[in-house]
Design goal:
The complex is a heterodimer.
Chain A (H helix, E strand, L loop, with lengths): L1 H38 L1
Chain B lengths: L3 H23 L13 H27 L3 H27 L1 H6 L7 H20 L2 H34 L7 H22 L5 H13 L1 H11 L17 H51 L1
Helix pairs in contact in B: 1-10, 2-5, 2-6, 2-8, 2-10, 3-5, 6-7, 6-10, 7-8, 7-9
The chains are: A mainly alpha, B mainly alpha.
């Protein structure tokens, strides 16, 4: 059962890490958009 | 889509939870491998989802290459139509001629050839209709990145299944090695897109993706063609699966498809916004010296 839990846990860990990186990139981009708006 | 996103998100969460419940509780316990076989319900749908995403990446990459020139665009359109027609005729001929039918991989119906050709043509023209040249490139990046994530899941869950069943984490057999090569090709694709600043980067990446996609059929058919450590197919190829297991497998695949769709949509939006910001920044930097000069 340990291998089963490890596999399911690893699957969701990989997806969550990826979603966090997407969110971080989105936040960074949002910051850049705000800076662009300010400079205009 | 923005309004539908939360509803789809909730539905996907319900599907994923239900899929997990089916995999852990409802699916029957496999007699030889025991509970560890339940990894199958995450491993296989992840692999199918990765293949589907790499297929979309392949179509998007081809379109990015051919649509930049009207002549090659027309040639590609007619080639795709011809391919679909030839596949349909081929499936009829293979069904009638016993020698041709025997030459197909074991358990493959001749109609699969026609279906494949028609699916390729439909996918090609649907993407062509709804995505312009810039959008098709963004779609290629999106599907490659999300495909790599799903392929990573396959490469991690595979050894976790192999260790208790085979007694080893990894073996260099064709299925496993070709999957690793596939993953490496698409990681290279993403590295190329991330670190190359050349204007030709999308073209080079699209060419790499077209060659990378050629590995997908090799991965898929490797267990039919070669004698491998990896189990023989349980679906198609003469294999069989308990109907309850099949139901759990398909339900989990549906859940992962919904999840992949939402992730792709988010990543695609991110890519489009990123390009708009880059464009605005480039414009800004062009205008700045002029304003100083004034």
């Amino acid at each position: 059962m340990n291998f089963l839990y490890a596999a399911y846990g690893a699957t969701w860990a990989i997806h969550i890490v990826y979603l966090v990186t997407v969110y971080q990139r989105y936040s960074k981009l949002k910051q850049e958009v705000d800076e662009l708006k300010k400079s205009r | 889509m923005r309004k539908a996103f939360p509803i789809l998100g909730i539905l996907t969460a319900i599907f994923l939870s239900y899929g997990l419940y089916l995999a852990m509780v409802v699916a029957p316990r496999e007699q030889t491998m025991g509970d560890v076989q339940r990894i199958f319900y995450y491993h296989v749908p992840s692999a199918w989802t990765a293949f589907l995403l790499f297929f979309i990446n392949f179509i998007a990459s081809i379109q990015y290459l051919v649509r930049r020139n009207p002549v090659s665009d027309k040639v590609a359109n007619w080639t795709i139509i011809t391919l679909a027609v030839v596949c349909c005729i081929g499936s009829v001929v293979a069904a009638v001629v016993p020698d041709l039918k025997a030459a197909l991989p074991q358990g493959t119906e001749p109609s699969a050839i026609g279906t494949t050709g028609v699916i390729i043509a439909i996918a090609y023209f649907v993407i062509r209709k709804y995505f312009n040249l810039e959008a098709v490139d963004a779609l290629a990046v999106t599907t490659a990145e999300v495909g790599v994530v799903f392929c990573t899941v396959v490469l991690v869950t595979g050894p976790l299944w192999a260790r208790p069943v085979w007694g080893i984490w990894w073996t260099w057999d064709v299925r496993l090695t070709s999957t690793l090569v596939l993953w490496l090709i698409y990681v290279s694709y993403l590295i190329l897109r991330r670190f190359s600043s050349s204007g030709q980067t999308p073209v080079m990446a699209a060419a790499l993706a077209v060659f990378g996609a050629l590995d997908v059929p090799l991965v898929y058919f490797s267990i039919w063609i070669f004698r491998t450590q990896h189990p023989q197919p349980v679906i198609g190829g003469g294999g069989s699966i308990d109907p309850r297991m099949m139901h759990v497998l398909l339900m989990n695949w549906l859940a992962f498809l919904c999840f992949a769709y939402l992730v792709c949509w988010s990543r695609y939006r991110l890519e489009i916004i990123k390009r708009e910001v880059e464009e605005a920044q480039a414009l800004e930097s062009l205008l700045e010296p002029r304003s100083v000069a004034r």
